[in-house]
């Protein structure tokens, strides 16, 4: 059975706190969604802002593989003829093959929010849908607040669906707009609706109770053939149903085809790409597509997974374009260490002197506050240094940092650095907005002449974590530096009671790791 995916990242997802998509952002995301195999892409509400109007103009020039672009609007306003309503006029001018029209299905909203009569609301639904159908549009009727309305006044909620049906709606999408309906309630209500309508049903769930994905799954299992959601669960308040979870659940767990196997394998990449466009941190623990979704830290887990992955994995990570990761810590056993050594191309034998030395060093460092889950490049360097496989590319002799601020003017920082590289003493100065930026610039001045390859290295993220807040300004800090070049990305870590020293350790490891791969 084929399920249609309706993505509203560009409309509902754009209402996420902290997201502000540019026109170019929206076009990029639309192309990614089409590549993923999404059937409907809701581009926005053309009657609400100029940016959405520009999107509908621009997307016409973008060749799409299969997705239909959808424009969104409310029904006509109370006591206004549908042909005279500016929102409806703008909706049709968006010139999309399909439209999504939402109408109130909870009597409380009709009387207290719209301030109109129940009968007028029914007329608004029917007339708006019929007008859009007459204009040649495929119409999805979004039954707003349907579940709450059904629980409070079943008869009226069903009258709203009947009005949309009489208007000619192609799909009736049942919306849990407040996100408070639980899966067992949805199951019963969808069954009741299915018995009283012949129209295809859809589901639009919000995540305010943490149940949006489960609600969507239950609704499809009962009767719904269209699922509305957003990538990464973006959306107002607690977000919408997360398509990054829904798609693999439908395809791999329920046997309901929605995308091709090849498209499913792009899920992780596209999810992360959209997170970058949204400029929001990607949750490492997001199901299916998160960096930690198939990560194993406990020694017993790793020992089992290396023999039979299904012992601690519910599906193969490559099916959704993700990968299995083994992390190392003082809590993990020798199995983790051996797996990582093999991954790094290091011949390390169980019970060997080297293995014991690495484990002891690891425990000592983690006692000091190191954590290598996000600093795997530093761990690879640690392992290879302990095994005598690599030597430091540079030796610090000293560095000095000066900060200058005059009155209300900007703060400038200068770093002076003295290194020994390839047996020769090297000096350099660097300026920056802060001490780490200045240090990084000074370090590069020395090394780029000797190792020009590091010109491609970019610092992409910098995180500081206070490890012992009770110590106040004397507390230890852990610094994670994320770096990348044209081909890969890596993380390094440094720990100290001095944030500059901790940053220096992470910065040097980042450069050393780049040189390690040359």
TrEMBL record:
Highest taxon of source: Bacteria
Keyword hit for Calcium: no
A GO MF label: 2-isopropylmalate synthase activity
Reactions the enzyme catalyzes: pyruvate + acetyl-CoA + H2O = (3R)-citramalate + CoA + H(+)
Pathway as given in its UniProt record: Amino-acid biosynthesis; L-isoleucine biosynthesis; 2-oxobutanoate from pyruvate: step 1/3
Stored Pfam families: HCS_D2, HMGL-like, LeuA_dimer
GO biological process terms on file: isoleucine biosynthetic process; L-leucine biosynthetic process
EC number(s) from the headed UniProt entry: 2.3.3.21
Name of the protein in its database record: Citramalate synthase
Organism of provenance: Candidatus Saganbacteria bacterium CG08_land_8_20_14_0_20_45_16
Name of the encoding gene: cimA
